[in-house]
Small RNA 2'-O-methyltransferase
Amino acid sequence: MPVLLTITTTATEVAGERVPATDLGYLLHKHPDRVQAFPQSFGTLTVLYPEAGEERCTAALLLEVDAVRLARRRRGGPDVTLGHYVNDRAYAASSLLGVAVADVLSTARSGVCRSRQALADSAIPLELRLPALPCRGGLDVARRLFEPLGWTVAATPVPLDPDFAEWGESRYLDLTLTGTVRLADALNQLHVLLPVLDESKHYWQGPDEVDKLLRSGGDWLTGHPERELVVRRYLGRRGALIRLALARLAELDGEADESLDDDAAAAADETAALPAERRAPLNTQRREAVLAALAELGAASVIDLGCGGGQLLKALLDDGRYRRVTGVDVSARALQLAARAVRLERMSERQAERLSLFQGALTYDDERFAGYDAAVLMEVVEHLDPPRLPALERVVFGVAAPAAVIVTTPNVEYNALYEGLAERPGAHRHHDHRFEWTRAEFAAWCERVGAAHGYAVELRGVGEADDELGAPTQLAVFRRG
């Protein structure tokens, strides 16, 4: 039985400190000195470490598939063919491996590691190897999917039979990916792209597949040049699901997707509850509200904390009153998208001097955050686990201490007007939201943070307000003193 996936890293440096390679065990939440087996509904995933030294460490994930158990789990009537019992699922990196890894490494995929959070937030040197990867389209498709994510792709086609070269090559690749990538990003990319490359899944796909795709791919798929290919293959070429997924990705990317029909666009539009003649993308209204607040403040230097795809940065750079503009994000992929959004490669030298982009975590002290007239946290706070909010408050309001801070976040009360959310109490607008505040909860948070750090606070609403439920987005302007 071949090893289906190995994850290798080397010693690296984070925040000026040397980190041994064996800290990979902390990120995976699997101890290097143990061999651990995790039962799955279709077999067993075993995690072990063939090498575990300070300079180099490798985790191996071996999936043993029970073909009989897998066949018996299939929906529908009995199937008397042998195809469900004799196949490549026990030997190839298919959706079975993707599901097993997603389950066993779920905490690692979330990017949470309390004992090594700075390391979990950082891009580290990684090498992923899949010695038996089914890939429809061969090496060309593998490169098209992985290279835009920052990976160097090396692959050798697996022959049908080494003893009979004339039989040609199989559809399998021995694939190695190398790059400097955040481990959580790497695992989420594999979770999506394994079934995409195979163009097959072992389970029936329902409407919740779109949510699964966005949970694992929302942060990097929005700007992927092959995102339509990824979506179509991942969703099994099911037209309605594809249209909905592309619409939601377009919303996350801050752009309108004109190829979508009106029904799908309306389903993805957060302002679909409003009359058509007044409907405008809520992300556009948020951005305009933040820009208006910055203009009122008279800010000349602005730092966008959690800049994402860079739409706000682009608007700031287009306005000559902002002499210094900085974008920060924990995701290296987000910074690549931001650079593309502002057309960094085409900027004049004078224009480029106004812009800075760098990777950083908002829960750790960073001297680069300081010295700005205004800081913006636009749809950021709700993506943090509540226990980490005090760290963000201290770093942004206490250590960086800009003259003003602008914060936007969803109003959870307004969710009752959204089709699909009204029927699901407790559901959030985005798969990565850890919480969403009521107006009273947001006001209390703003009052407490402002009082603790010497800021006066003004609360506003963004978007068409409902008489009882308020506006869809809440905005706070903090002014020091």
